[in-house]
Amino acid sequence: MRALLQRVSRASVEVDGRCIGEIGPGLLVLLGLDKGDDEARADRMLDKLLRYRVFADESGRMNCNVAEAGGGVLLVSQFTLSADTRKGLRPSFSTALPPAEAEQLYHYSLEQLRQRHAPVAAGEFGADMQVSLVNDGPVTFLLELLD
Question: At CA 25, angle to CA 110 and CA 74, rounded to 5?
C-alpha cells in the first residue's frame, strides 16, 4: 500500500466536468493498493497519514499533523501508484490489487477516514478523474508500509 501525500492550500477532483470533492488547506492523498493489502494494513496507513507531521507549528517547523492544522483530506484512488517500474519502458501492474478487491478496500479506507477525521472529500473509484491542486511548499511524501 502506498499513499502519496501532498500538502495543499486547496485541491479538488472532477468527473465528467462536475466537481465531486474539494478541500481547502490540508492533504491530497493518492492511494495505491497492492496485492496483499487488507483492512488491517489500511488502518495502519490511515493512522500514519493522519499523524504524519507535515504542517508548520508556530516556529515554522513541520511539527503538526492535518488535524492539528485544521486541514481537510481529499482521498483519491490512484491505480498507477502500484506500477512496477523497475524494468523496461512500460509499467507493469502485476503487483496491483485486482479491481474488485481494490474498490472494496478503497471504500473501507474512505469510511474509516471519515470516522477518524473531518472534513474528508473523495474521488470516484475507477473513474476518469481530473485532480487539481495547489501544492503548498511544495511538500510531497510517499508513505509505504513495511511488513
Answer: 20
Question: Annotated catalytic, 78?
Answer: yes
Q: Which domains are assigned to the chain?
A: 2-139 (3.50.80.10)
Percent of the chain with pLDDT over 70: 99
**Phi, psi values for residue 87, rounded to 5°:** -125, 145
- 55 labelled catalytic: no
pLDDT for res 145? 86
pLDDT in tens, 73-106: 999 999 999 999 999 999 999 999 999 999 999 9
pLDDT of the residue at 46: 98
Catalytic residue among 79, 104, 112, 140: 79
pTM over 0.90: yes
Selecting among 6, 55, 78, 125, the annotated active-site residue is: 78
Q: Catalytic pick from 55, 80, 104, 115?
A: 80
